[in-house]
Each structure stands twice: as C-alpha cells, then as structure tokens.
Write the structure tokens for this entry.
Amino acid sequence: MEDDLDLRTLVDELGSEAFGAGGALAYVAMGTSSGALHMEEEDGELSPTTRNDLQSAMAALAEEGDPSFERALLGRGASNAELDAAAGARSSADFLRVAREAGLVGFCDALAFCGLAEEMPELCAAGITVLAPTDAAFAQLARRTRCSKRLVRHILLAHLSAGVSMLRDLHSRRCAAALGGQTHAAVLEGGCTYVGTARVSRADIPFDGGVIHQ
C-alpha cells in the first residue's frame, strides 16, 4: 500500500501496528524536495532500495537535529534492518556536519563527487574512522586524478577504516586497515603521529558513530 505523508508528521500519523515485529512495513523516502514519504509493504528484510531510501529520510531528519523518527522506531519494535539504517543515516549526517565544521570541505565534496556520500550511511552503521586529508592535500592532486570518480573513490576508501579507532588505539595497534584494502602503519615519532606517510595534525574529532583524524 502507498500513502504520501509529510516527513515531520510521519510518526504522529502512523499507528503502532506499522512498527510491528518482523518489519512488515518499510518506510521509504521518495527523495523529493518536499520530503514526502510513502509506505511500502515488504516481508522480511529491507530491500537495498528501501534501505537506501530510509537512510536518506533519516539523514534529512538528522541534519535538522530531529531524532523523533528514530525514537519511534526504537519504541515500536522496529526490525534490526530498520534500526541499522536509522543509525547509519544519523551517523553519516553527523559526520558530514562535523567534517564541514572542521574545515574538511574538500573531503566532503569528494565523497559526493564519487558517489561514496550515498554509501556513507551503510559504512557508518557499525562505526567508522576517517583519516581525512586536508583541503590543501586534495589541491595537490593532479587535475586528471581529481576529475576521475574511480580514482577519487579509490583514494577516499584508502582513508576510511571500519570501527572507531581513537588515536591511542592506532598507537596500540600500530596500524590502520582501510576499507580500500590498504594497511597503513601508525607510528609515533618526535611527538607526532604518522599514519602511512601523513602526519596527523588533529586527532580524535568525534561524531556520532565515529571519529576523524586529520
């Protein structure tokens, strides 16, 4: 069944049966500028399309500082898939907010350019560590590299690590395993931490579900 609902009134207008055990109903963001939602009946786990649309809806709410939708999911027996999608979307939105506030505009723009921004909710769901290059570092890339979505994606995945690793964790493990398959040595030398060949200038910048090291 389908029923268009305004994003802000979704929780108020849906009854508790919509959040029944088993996740019989999945909530799907239409991706329109009005932020309307419709409901799509599904059995079992969320489909990839449904999960992505739900993540987009949650990201929109998180950017506005409105956790009411997630509270409703938690309070009304939502499925694990719904809760994971909600947590990932909230974490991704908070990461983008914190990163931009920290001046990492180039990194955020690069995520959007290569399409990884759309995948961040799923990547963030279980926690993530971001080894973020500075805008100056991005500016040093060859123009041909900066204009290639494939190469930019490869570079960014080399700067994302599963799980939340504070600076002390990197020191303890002496390495950081990237989602792109690389393993970067983490070395403390002369009072400075180096991950790979890059010196960490700012560490332990927290966001909901992860941490940034620059």
Summary: Confidence is low (pLDDT under 50) at residues 1-46. The CA atoms of residues 66 and 79 lie 21 Å apart.
